[in-house]
Amino acid sequence: MNNPLRDPRDRRLPLIAGPSSMVMFGVTGDLAKKKLLPAIYDLTNRSLLPPSFGLVGFGRRDWSHEDFADYVEEAVKEGARTGFRQSVMDQLRGGLRFVTGEFDETAAYERLTDVVKELDETRGTGGNHAFYLSIPPKAFPQVCEQLANSGLNASENGSWRRVVIEKPFGHNLESARELNDVVEKVFDEEDVFRIDHYLGKETVQNLLAFRFANQMFEPVWNANYVDHVQITMAEDIGIGSRAGYYDGIGTARDVIQNHLLQLFALTAMEEPISFEAADLRAEKEKVLAAVELPGDLATSTARGQYVGGWQGGQWVKGYLEEEGIPEDSETETFAAMQLNVNTRRWAGVPFYLRAGKRLGRRVTEIAVVFKSAPFLPFNDTDTKDLGQNSIVIRIQPDEGVTMRFGSKVPGSQMEVRDVSMDFVYGSSFTEESPEAYERLILDMLLGDPPLFPRQREVELSWAILDPVTEFWAESMPPSPYRAGTWGPQTAHDMLARDGRHWRRP
């Protein structure tokens, strides 16, 4: 959908959302308070939202519009990236409204309809309204049904209505399809925006620029030169206060099905003919459809659960000791698996994915590890410290790219050792990267969908993961690993069988 404020002649110009408002369900939750509300303020502070932008909170609290505005201001002061300015906050406050009600309360949606109409009349939002469902998936049917019954989902006179869905998109393939059926009975597919906040990160988007804007990398981005690829998402924290959500879900469903498989798709896909949404999604879908799991899941996957240990100089509790976790829980806090890709580009190249909590440090990275040189005209002792070349794309923290290659050590003898060459965002650009939710919220308001996975991608991802989680449930309880380490021994054995080892980030 074309935006009248987008100038196609100069892609450097900022894209500014047109007249619109957002209705946020779950506005009092942690995600809204810590991420969404500060992101909306930061967009306002950067003049990327119209001065008349409206934000409607929907929840059970008995709040006036002014109470809600105070809540938003408090969240902004705590979480804004761009610094607090009262004049900007006052501009935003003018469009803040709150509707008290339950998700299934018809009268509440009648009040919401009145508020939306009032924003159209007093703020000039033009009938353009987005509904952000920052709520548990089990509540989607209630909210979608009420939006349809009240007519809030229906656009007219050239305006638009959109819905934004936070992950998880179901808990397996069957539930993902059921969830999609509920949503698409109310909104058209092009009006459904599924949020994966990893796709809004600058470094993830830079992966596309890195691959396709540089002639020096693409010729070696294939099975002729690449030995294997490792994609890691490690957290050094435990589950915190998320026991109610996390237990029974686990790491594989929580982050591998979405975040890591999206990173995998962007790493392995073919070059799209353009970065328009349809072309980009088509290539991601092709590579996800080409994934094949190894025949023996017992040796090509690993599953772990952290136990107490020393981390950051202090003793931390194990998963089963966390508040709200059943003492017999078999939910994994670490997951690893090997994927094979049946394409000419990647035939014979394994992709290893791993994610976990209470690991050695917080890091997300993609490591492309190259084959060793076929012939080394050196004495064996000259290259005893030489490893395999690699390109490591760091998603977080310290966003950037590292190239690791061999170089001669200064001196009279020929000694070759690994060295690193780094590109770091923070030192290369003066402009601070926007937070992921800023980019995604703005793109949704612009109707710009490339960074939002569609239902086909979601289903293909679940089709990859479901056989693994089903096998685990039947045959593989999680193996223990100490907090502060890099996962269970089974994960290290998984690569050792192939003569490889995990990178130490």
Topology:
Blueprint lengths: L20 E5 L4 H16 L8 E6 L5 H15 L6 H8 L2 E5 L5 H17 L6 E5 L6 H11 L10 E6 L6 H12 L7 E4 L6 H11 L13 E9 L8 H4 L3 H19 L8 H13 L1 E2 L4 H4 E7 L1 E3 L2 E3 L17 E8 L9 E6 L6 E8 L19 E7 L3 E9 L7 E9 H4 L7 H11 L8 H21 L3 E4 L6 H8 L9
Parallel strand pairs: 1-2, 1-4, 2-3, 4-5, 5-6, 7-13, 9-18
Antiparallel strand pairs: 7-14, 8-12, 9-12, 10-11, 12-13, 14-15, 15-16, 16-17
Helix pairs in contact: 1-2, 1-13, 6-14, 9-10, 9-14, 10-14
Description:
The chain is α/β, with parallel strands linked by helices and 505 residues long. The chain folds into two domains: 21-166, NAD(P)-binding Rossmann-like Domain (Rossmann fold, 3-Layer(aba) Sandwich), CATH 3.40.50.720; 199-372 and 449-496, Dihydrodipicolinate Reductase, domain 2 (2-Layer Sandwich), CATH 3.30.360.10. The chain is 34% helix and 21% strand. It has 15 helices and 18 strands. Strands 7, 8, 9, 12, 13, 14, 15, 16, 17 and 18 form a ten-stranded mixed sheet that branches. It is globular and about 80 Å long. The protein starts with 20 loop residues before the first strand and ends in a 9-residue tail after the last helix.
Here the CATH topology of the largest domain equals Dihydrodipicolinate Reductase, domain 2
Spell out the CATH superfamily of the largest domain.
Dihydrodipicolinate Reductase, domain 2
CATH architecture of the largest domain: 2-Layer Sandwich
Radius of gyration (CA) equals 24 Å
The tally of helices reads 15
Beta-strand percentage range: 15-25%
Class derived from helix and strand content: alpha/beta
> Which blocks of ≥5 consecutive residues have pLDDT under 50?
1-13
Mean pLDDT across all residues, rounded? Answer: 89
Question: Biggest sheet, open or closed, and with what strands and sense?
Answer: 10 strands, mixed
Shape: globular
CA(first)-CA(last) distance:
41 Å
What count of domains describes the coordinates?
A: 2
The strand count comes to 18
- Percent range of helical residues: 25-40%
